[in-house]
Amino acid sequence: MSPHAKTVASWGNLSHGGHMVAAPSFHDEIPMALNELIAQCRSVLPYGLGRSYGDVCLNTGKGLLLTERLDRFLTFDATSGILRAEAGVTIGEALRLTVPKGWFVPVTPGTKFVTLGGAVANDVHGKNHHLAGTFGRFVRKLALRRSDGSVTECGPDRERDLFRATIGGLGLTGLIEWVEIDLQPIASAEIEMQSLRFAGVEGFFEMSADSVSWPYVVSWIDCLSQGSALGRGIFMRGRHAETGALVAARAKGGLGIPVTPPVGLVTPLSVRLFNEAYYRRPGATFTGRTHFDPFFYPLDRLHHWNRAYGPRGFYQYQSVLPPETARRGTIEMLKCIAASGQASCLVVLKNFGDAPAAGMLSFPMAGTTLALDFPNRGNRTLALFAALDDIVVRCGGRLYAAKDARMVPAMFHGGYPELDRFRTFLDPAFDSDLKRRLSI
Amino acid sequence: MSRTAIIILGATSAIAQQYARLQAERGARLLLVGRDSERLAEIAADLTLRGAETVEIPDMDLTAPTDGYQAAWTSLASRLGERLDIVLLAYGALGHQDAAEADPAETVRLLNANMVSACAWLTAAANHLERQGHGTIAAIASVAGDRGRRSNYVYGAAKGGLALFMEGLTHRLAGTPVRVLTVKPGLVDTPMTDDMNKNGPLWATPAKVAADIDKAIARGRTVLYTPWFWRPIMLVIRCLPRVLFHRLRL
């Protein structure tokens, strides 16, 4: 199990850098794997499934500790809904265990292919942020191994500062060995959902205000539409159904993109055609029931969808603007993006709630978040991001580190007021491309 | 019908763990044999949560059981009670070809770990299942056993010998209700292969291999190449004329 060389990319496929990796299979192998990586490479970073988009999960030329084989359940109490599992267990695997017993993860991102360790380290959010907050708020306890050999169990009521640094701590405070979370009870695996068109961005804000009682709310936007149709899109809301079977989705093969095509398939023309069709399709207005899997994880059915962006990869840009500036700033950003003609079909708009942040570097805050994919077209794309950065900074917003590959250090430092405090909890042997780039 | 009763020899192997998970979700009764009791306990806790009806974890060195193979087998088999449905032999050691070439004792060690001890367990298991008149024996060999190659012929010879033994066992038990499956995985991303360069499209996950084994057992197959594309690849490698083969660094 000694460290070996491996080329590793993140989900955005922007870089394919060499790493030294070690993948311990059992708990007793963790200390040696960590020590060897640190001795050989001088630094290490935990790596789960690599679903973050930018460089938060990369440590190019240095060490990665792969958690994929640390994927065992430790305890699950079907009465209280408390699950303790190793950090490499994925949300998808957890759901396969807990859904048949009537429990669902408290918060889920838009893919089930993330590990619990990654969900904690990026303090992920989901469609229920406006009511529930982030994933980190449901962590009861976790075990953190530091490079000095210590293992600390921390939680909201024990070693609270170290805990708050580790939630959303980007893997830089040590290795999360296991996580214990509170699940939410469900009566059915189905979701009662509605989807509705809105003809412009004002419609989004109105529907959001009308939907605060719905636990799950998210919108898709056609980011190429301009003028009176600026920010038209589809509003989706859902809640766990009261009746129905408790079946986790089968791990079906699904479709996939087998190889990266030589040129990206996401072009202005293909995006325009897709957006028009997606907005106009009859299913865009729908009231009914669906299984939770297509509701939460529509893209999980297309394996390796990131390959559609071709060999140059893609960026994701996710911002949040506070409530005071959200409307004005979102409109300004959408105008800027529509005029550039660069974005892709994958655009998400959502209002966050005002739940207190679980971690020192947690991304979500009260306001409106906009997330978009952009094929990597080099300087043209970076110039657009610079323009968007201006708007975000002027509006008092910030960007999501798990999605980022290019923001400047000042923007990160300005957006995260608890950064200095966070730094006192850094593990000196843990490092990442993002940490170096943003001078964390 | 009562739950499937399974003995896994070498239960801490990556492929064995994935196979055990598949069976645990169906509520199987599992007997996991391996060397490291602490690791077996980690696996057992997980499998119990996943739904296994019972998980027992006797620990022993499978390549040299203290009481001899027959006595060790009898005591293992008695722990599961009346009926035994599946025996999966999953342990093995890749070793280092260089070390085996330099040291005859290492060659013997690899032959014992991958073939000699395995054949002993398979003999005991086959007799047990034949008497019982029911069950499946599966053993994990390797595509490396299909032709001797300079890069790993000691490991290859052991796995090839195991495959030949299994072929004979399949022949012997052909007229009985007992099924025998020889599994020949290709490149699998497990701790055993962590020293190899794993970039490239030929690598499979242990979960994929385990799912293939599960299907092959259900269908009563005799030889499984997994993933499937290794069957044509190995056919070509076996058929290469020696003149050509000797020019390749395989």
UniProtKB/TrEMBL annotation, chain A:
GO terms for molecular function: FAD binding; oxidoreductase activity, acting on the CH-OH group of donors, oxygen as acceptor. Keywords: FAD, Flavoprotein. Gene3D superfamilies: 3.30.465.10. Signal peptide: none annotated. SUPFAM superfamilies: FAD-binding/transporter-associated domain-like (SSF56176). Residues 14-186 form the FAD-binding PCMH-type domain. This is FAD-binding oxidoreductase. The lineage of its organism: Bacteria, Pseudomonadati, Pseudomonadota, Alphaproteobacteria, Rhodospirillales.
TrEMBL record, chain B:
The keyword Hydrolase does not apply. GO terms for cellular component: membrane. Pfam families: adh_short. GO terms for molecular function: oxidoreductase activity. Keywords: Oxidoreductase. The keyword Oxidoreductase applies. PANTHER family: DEHYDROGENASE/REDUCTASE SDR FAMILY MEMBER 7B, DEHYDROGENASE_REDUCTASE SDR FAMILY MEMBER 7B. Belongs to the short-chain dehydrogenases/reductases (SDR) family. This is Short-chain dehydrogenase. The lineage of its organism: Bacteria, Pseudomonadati, Pseudomonadota, Alphaproteobacteria, Rhodospirillales.
